[in-house]
């Protein structure tokens, strides 16, 4: 299985989320659509098979990885992307799909999913990456892990706390995987847009 991971040096975090031209965003959106019927079937099968075991190992099947690579290649040709832009788009495409799959598969009500997504969209990404890295004890975003503070925990809680959603181990794994994947998607998008 192919795991999708993105590392971005901490020094670039502040500039990574600057406003980008609409054309760049539209070009990057190319990787989210335009799939053939056969490719859509591979994506549909991945969505339908996604469960808690998948959350513990969020990886693409070889078939899905091939679909993503082919769509990125098609978009690169269509939009004349550089090698750097194509690489950033490839780093975006997997997490973009996975974040949506994870959110849709979460065993919570649609209104709770909407609240979770709204909390995330309203959060300061740089602060969230710093806080989540400390709370999770990870350097997955290029941030050196440090001792988590009460402010870090409050920042993460402001995103993941949703009325009626327990934060026991299993659901915490869903949230952690979705949050990590969403942040990786956004970092890759920012990298693409900065090119």
TrEMBL record:
<keyword id="KW-0732">Signal</keyword>
<protein>
    <recommendedName>
        <fullName>DUF2059 domain-containing protein</fullName>
    </recommendedName>
</protein>
<feature type="signal peptide">
    <location>
        <begin position="1"/>
        <end position="24"/>
    </location>
</feature>
């Amino acid at each position: 299985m192919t795991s999708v991971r993105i590392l971005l040096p901490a020094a670039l975090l502040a500039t990574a989320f600057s406003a980008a031209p609409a054309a760049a965003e539209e070009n990057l959106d190319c990787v989210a659509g335009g799939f053939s019927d056969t490719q859509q079937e591979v994506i549909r099968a991945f969505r339908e098979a996604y469960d808690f075991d998948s959350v513990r190992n969020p990886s693409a099947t070889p078939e899905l990885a091939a679909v993503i690579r082919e769509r990125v290649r098609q978009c690169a040709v269509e939009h004349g992307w550089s090698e750097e832009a194509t690489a950033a788009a490839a780093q975006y495409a997997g997490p973009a799909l996975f974040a949506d799959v994870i959110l849709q598969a979460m065993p919570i009500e649609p209104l709770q999913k909407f609240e979770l997504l709204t909390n995330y969209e309203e959060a300061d990404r740089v602060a969230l990456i710093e806080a989540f890295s400390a709370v999770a004890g990870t350097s997955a975003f290029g941030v050196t892990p440090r001792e988590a503070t009460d402010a870090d925990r409050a920042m993460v809680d402001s995103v993941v706390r949703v009325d009626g959603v327990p934060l026991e181990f299993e659901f915490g794994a869903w949230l952690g995987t979705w949050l990590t994947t969403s942040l990786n998607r956004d970092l890759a998008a920012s990298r693409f847009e900065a090119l």
